[in-house]
Amino acid sequence: MVRLLSTLRYDAEIFWLTKSLALLKISKGIPREIIELLHMGATISVANKAVVVSLRDWQISIPIEMATTVGTIATLIHGGVDFRYEDGQLIAYLPSYNGLRMELGGESIASNLVAISERFVRKEFSILNVRNRTVIDVGANIGDSILWFLANGAAYVVGFEPFVPTFKQAEKNIQLNDLTSQVTLVNAGVGANNANLVFDYCPQRSMGMSTNSWVKDTLPGLPVRKESVSIISFQNAMLDHVPDSLRSREMVLKMDCEGCEFEIFTNPRIEEQLVSFHEVLIEYHYKAPESILRHLRNCGFNVKTLHETIMV
């Protein structure tokens, strides 16, 4: 009888959730990952323009416009990530990475969940050899890539993040793990030239924000506000923030800046800095990468492209 009631409750929850999401034009069905969450014992509801996932002693609320990211929670749990509260803040805890912790934040929580999944479950940067090397991280986001590099043996990371709210969260995550002695975090974007500009910023899409005016990575219904941003040239980024003491080690460049990579490579002196690196990984967006590939080959790199990623 108990099993029958449990099955009826489960089927009713699936029916109700399917209907709720369909009415909101989010999905015609329930993604497999959400089914998995329900099997784990999670309660999933739709209220106040959000999908709310509750499991054990934690609760995560995702804006309805980003409901498709709810399944990422199941992906993270399967990948060994746990969730807990510390001092009232919801933390993603990664026991398989020496207990790394990341604060999930409030309005950017959906984007942050995806970032942690890409970094620590999908391990997108595992093709880079960072052990005992200095890593230059253009597009540091919430510090997820910085923590990944350090967890995998990087000696030091210099990270650049232009948007103040995202930068502050990166600072918190680095401090949370007592890694400030191995990181220089710069609140600036990297581009072709130095500039102070204003860009659209959508907190719920913080992972995809760009310092390129032609990039509009937002969703209808999500709030957008203006953010003042400092941009520095790649040459200045290297000269001002990467001292000789860090250059004494082999260096690795990771660039994931949602379109600004094309701006960076318009600087005629870009190759003077590229030759300093032993390995380079660049995610390119929205355009074909030929202009970037040309500069890399001019510097003698052997280049591979993998799903909008350049690896040399």
Descriptive tags:
312 residues, alpha/beta, Rossmann fold, 2 domains, seven-stranded mixed β-sheet, three-stranded antiparallel β-sheet, 11 helices, 16 strands, globular
Folded structure, characterized:
By secondary structure, the protein is of the alpha/beta class. The protein folds into two domains: 2-117, no CATH class; 124-311, Rossmann fold. It is 33% helix and 26% strand. It has eleven helices and 16 strands. It has helices at residues 2-23, 32-39, 71-78, 109-120, 144-151, 164-176, 234-241, 244-247, 260-264, 270-274, 290-298, and strands at residues 43-47, 50-55, 58-63, 82-86, 89-94, 100-103, 134-138, 156-160, 183-186, 189-191, 195-201, 225-233, 251-255, 279-283, 304-305, 309-311. The chain has a seven-stranded mixed β-sheet with strand order 9-8-7-13-14-16-15, covered by helices on one side. A three-stranded antiparallel β-sheet has the order 1-2-3. Strand 15 (304-305) and strand 16 (309-311) form a beta hairpin. Helix 2 packs across helix 3 (71-78). The chain starts with a helix and ends with a strand. Residues 1-10 and 23-28 have low confidence and may be disordered.
Secondary structure elements and pairings:
Layout: H1 2-23, H2 32-39, E1 43-47, E2 50-55, E3 58-63, H3 71-78, E4 82-86, E5 89-94, E6 100-103, H4 109-120, E7 134-138, H5 144-151, E8 156-160, H6 164-176, E9 183-186, E10 189-191, E11 195-201, E12 225-233, H7 234-241, H8 244-247, E13 251-255, H9 260-264, H10 270-274, E14 279-283, H11 290-298, E15 304-305, E16 309-311
Parallel strand pairs: 7-8, 7-13, 8-9, 10-12, 13-14
Antiparallel strand pairs: 1-2, 2-3, 4-5, 5-6, 11-12, 14-16, 15-16
Helix pairs in contact: 2-3, 3-4
